[in-house]
Specification:
Chains A, B: It comes from Bifidobacterium reuteri DSM 23975. 2 copies of one chain form a homodimer. With 349 residues, chain A is of the alpha/beta class. Helices cover 40% and strands 16% of the residues of chain A. The first copy, chain A, folds into 3 domains: 44 residues, lambda repressor-like DNA-binding domains (434 Repressor (Amino-terminal Domain), Orthogonal Bundle), CATH 1.10.260.40; 125 residues, Response regulator (Rossmann fold, 3-Layer(aba) Sandwich), CATH 3.40.50.2300; 148 residues, Rossmann fold, CATH 3.40.50. Chain A has 13 helices and 12 strands. In chain A, the strands form 3 sheets. A 6-stranded parallel beta sheet of chain A has the order 2-1-3-4-5-11, with helices on one face. A 4-stranded parallel beta sheet of chain A has the order 7-6-8-9, with helices on both faces. In chain A, helix 1 packs across helix 2, helix 5 crosses helix 13 and helix 7 runs parallel beside helix 9. The longest helix of chain A is centred in the first third of the chain and has 16 residues.
């Protein structure tokens, strides 16, 4: 299918290319009848502006790209939704590209084909080995819980503190056994949980740190048998984690129990398994999550969770990116949102 | 920030532009040392291929666009995820643009700025008033439950039959009152439920038809008081619909009850309210959904729902679009997936 060009329109309407251009840009002076006739020809031939050509000239599309992992968690859609709203408030559109196991670097080529003015990268894993992906020819804002190495602006959320607070509360209340679902897979597999305190980035590591520090500060040793890995951090892995805990005597036979889940999807999967097992929540086991996704208000019982103000998070990322797109040359910034613990029926505190 | 051009690279590396081009495309013959040196210069200067210029020449990006409504339902993310997987299997990437209350036509301009080879449009509402949006300069596949008017290929899913089957089963079992959550807002507001049989498109209308026909075929009149509108078809509206039903005597005081929800998000919201009200599911009220989202397997009790093979649905859309992108000129096609009812603990059948 051959694209209709501005030349085709000019020929068909018996006017100059300049006149067609003036009609398209609503500029120049001409008789209203002429303007009307050219518009009709544009409509009839189905002429559309060649944005590839235009963007070569103006270098702007008012489109922001988002590079994020696959849509396999409710949180991803929630984050994308908040970014879309924030971008629209600033007169920009958002397009989304996803990477899966290949990581951010696997889609850098694609980002150059999309014609966005700048990109928001999301990374929940450390970028140490590939921090060069932050050096692109377009402005970048990094979101997630990875270090930006002073290369680009970044937005993070509190991770250590909310999990520390929840775990400390459960310990202070004298809960017999407080388990965790969602720890970094390698640390659990290799029994290197002590190493978690050395890690300064990565969502899993930071949240697990909060849990471990609460025990240390209470003068209690962490029981590695009730610290369960997170896998894909989705409902299936939450269910799997809960079934695993049910097989651990220290947990199953405790006089009272709680599970700190590192995101809401994990908590929803765990809730389901505990109920199926015949346990009442929070009487037999208390469960908490992280993210405050919509489902956490509509599950049974409703889920105690961490709200880290995703709307502010998204708006900070969009605002910083647009400032860069428009030429801001200030030093790189790191913004962190604050948080609130939403207390609901799945816990007794 | 001035873009580094191929000329800059050639100058810096003391070679011709043709040689740089050969290095980029891994073609031509030259000494390995030269190739290596040019690569280093490309790296050092941060040269990246200008895809805007390139796409003017080749007219292809191997990117497919998806235009879909906002990410306010779990189903949207699930559909996007399946399309991403299907596109990748064919060597394409997917970028996503969303429309909200403005409808599909509000983002047509944006689609031209994204540089995709073709677009998948999703529409759950009739396009009658704006079917011209299907006439674009790029190939389009329409998905959702709207008519494509023979203009483009389209993919639909069965809507009437699964809801008919579920409702008929509940009626045949002698359930005292079978309500519905998710009907078209205007039909409920204006008490024009009879009109639903005249509608041949729109997800809400088609599924509501299935419900109404089951009653008609059983020789029973539909009780409009227990047919509740769907609003945004999310969990909040499901909860709202269930609270409404609790206030309707015909439902509340029936000897047995069921609620047919037109998607899973509505059903999850309703489940929560019934449990909060102290009703057991399915003993006091049976609940069914539609879509088989991940949450439907992990809620309490697990949800009986309709699986309409979203993977096939997504793969059909991607395959048809790619055929058009590659020049297929065959008559337009309509593909419909089949379905299976996943029977789980939220119903007694």
């Amino acid at each position: 299918m051959k694209r209709v060009t501005i030349t085709d329109v000019a020929k068909e309407a018996h006017v100059s290319i300049k006149t067609v251009s003036n009609v398209i840009n609503d500029s120049g002076s001409m008789r209203p009848e002429t303007r009307q006739r050219v518009k009709q020809v544009i409509e009839r031939l189905g002429y559309t502006i060649n944005y590839s050509a235009r963007s070569l000239k103006t270098g702007t599309t008012r489109i922001i790209g988002l590079a994020i992992m696959a849509f396999d968690q409710p949180w991803t859609a929630m984050y994308a939704g908040e970014l879309i709203k924030a971008a629209r408030r600033h007169g920009y559109s958002l397009v989304i590209d996803t990477y899966d196991d290949g990581g951010l670097s696997s889609i850098i080529d694609e980002t150059y084909r999309v014609n966005a003015d700048g990109w928001i990268f999301y990374a929940d894993q450390p970028l140490a080995d590939c921090k060069d992906i932050l050096k692109q020819r377009y402005p970048v804002v990094l979101t997630g819980d990875s270090l930006a190495y002073g290369l680009v602006d970044s937005v993070t959320m509190p991770n250590v503190q909310p999990i520390y607070d929840i775990t400390s509360t459960l310990i202070a209340e004298g809960v017999g056994c407080v388990g965790l679902i969602g720890a970094p897979d390698d640390l659990v597999a290799e029994r290197r949980l002590d190493d978690v305190n050395a890690l300064r980035e990565g969502t899993r590591a930071l949240r697990t740190q909060g849990y471990c520090r609460a025990f240390t500060d209470a003068g209690i040793e962490v029981n590695e048998n009730v610290v369960i890995e997170g896998g894909r951090w989705d409902m299936n892995w939450g269910a799997r984690g809960a079934r695993h805990l049910l097989s651990v005597p220290a947990f199953r036979d405790a006089r009272s129990r709680a599970v700190v889940c590192l995101n809401d999807a994990l908590a929803l999967g765990a809730l389901h398994v505990f109920k199926e097992h015949g346990w009442n929540v929070p009487e037999d086991v208390q469960v908490s999550g992280f993210d405050d996704i919509e489902e956490s208000r509509h599950c049974n019982p409703a889920l105690t969770t961490v709200n880290s103000h995703l709307d502010q998070y998204a708006d900070s990322a969009i605002s910083m990116l647009i400032e860069r797109i428009e030429g801001a040359d200030s030093p790189v910034r790191v913004i962190s949102t604050d948080f609130v613990i939403e207390r609901r029926a799945s816990t007794a505190f």
